[in-house]
Amino acid sequence: xxxxxxxxxxxxxxxxxxxxxxxxxxxxxxxxxxxxxxxxxxxxxxxxxxxxxxxxxxxxxxxxxxxxxxxxxxxxxxxxxxxxxxxxxxxxxxxxxxxxxxxxxxxxxxxxxxxxxxxxxxxxxxxxxxxxxxxxxxxxxxxxxxxxxxxxxxxxxxxxxxxxxxxxxxxxxxxxxxxxxxxxxxxxxxxxxx
Length: 194
Fold this sequence. Notes:
Order of helices and strands: EHEHEHEHEHHHHH
Helix content: 55-70%
Oligomer: single chain
Largest sheet: 5 strands, parallel
């Protein structure tokens, strides 16, 4: 989903049209506060991106970006700044602080949409990585030990010997690991964690 945050209706409409032309779903926000009220509750695992105007009447785009960063959302919600009043120091500062890109109005339609698609891909990867980390966090300490040995290519008997547990216990831990990580094979598990 592309979130367009700009106080100018013509810009919101133009960006929504460009997104639609590339089959990117878009949601327009007429104010920064309207966007912030939804920030964090409507983002999905499939990659969201924000095109954010720098100058807006209620809260400026840099302050919005700071709030997103403060909530830990910028990895899964890359921000592309869009402004008609930018300068090089402003762009450099935004990029140093973690913005995905910085465009000046008027902008090249295709270049902007290419960057939106790239930002959404980055967001998808970050969402997938966060999901894997959340699944890993559900493993017990013993399951983590078994997981490490499975990933090292050890057979159940070797795992049992190294950990001083029965082979049946290893099999139970292995089944729990596969269930919690939502995989069916050790190869699939290794691919998920590479």
